[in-house]
Amino acid sequence: MTHIFNQSRQAALFLAGLGTSLGGLYTLFPQWAVENLNQLTYVVDNTIFIQHWGFMVLMLGCSFFIAMVRSTWIKPLFCIALIEKLFFISLVLSNANQSFVDGFWLSMIMDSIICAYIAAYLWFCRATADLTS
């Protein structure tokens, strides 16, 4: 199984990086992203928080791309990404009965897939002294 994860790692890093980096849209186009991606009313007073969140997610996404060429980043990045994405998933699920969550389901599904891959990767590669090989 470890062999399968090592074979699919580059593609997984690329897809996770691409999907996660899309959060940068909240930094560049906060009003458009909130209204079109999350189906929420844009509140100008929240712009700094929206842009900050978007930038943080963009940087996590860019880290996936860097990990494609710097294998020493993989394990720490996967651990950080797993924590961040599980927290986002828990926020969406804990607010599932609220109407404002409607625009977050697709992101939650993407993060769930990424978390499943990361958890399986770390689990099956745990016996390997170097998870980046």
What can be said about this structure in brief?
This protein is mainly α and about 130 residues long. It is built from six helices and no strands. The two termini are about 15 Å apart.
What can you tell me about this protein's structure?
- The chain crosses the membrane at residues 12-29, 49-69, 76-93, 105-124.
- Keywords: Membrane, Transmembrane, Transmembrane helix.
- α1 (2-21) packs antiparallel against α4 and α5 runs antiparallel to α6.
- The longest helix is centred in the middle third of the chain and has 23 residues, at 47-69.
- The model has no long low-confidence stretch (mean pLDDT 92).
- The chain has 133 residues and is mostly helical.
- The chain has helices at 2-21, 25-28, 30-37, 47-69, 74-94, 105-124.
- Helices cover 72% and strands 0% of the residues.
- The chain is built from six helices and no strands.
- The chain has one domain (2-124).
Write the layout of secondary structure elements.
Layout: H1 2-21, H2 25-28, H3 30-37, H4 47-69, H5 74-94, H6 105-124
Helix pairs in contact: 1-4, 1-6, 5-6
Transmembrane segments: 12-29, 49-69, 76-93, 105-124
Keywords: Membrane, Transmembrane, Transmembrane helix
Oligomeric description of these chains: single chain
Helical/strand content category: mainly alpha
Alpha-carbon distance between the termini? 14 Å
| Mass-distribution shape | elongated
Computed over alpha carbons, the radius of gyration is 16 Å
The low-pLDDT segments are none
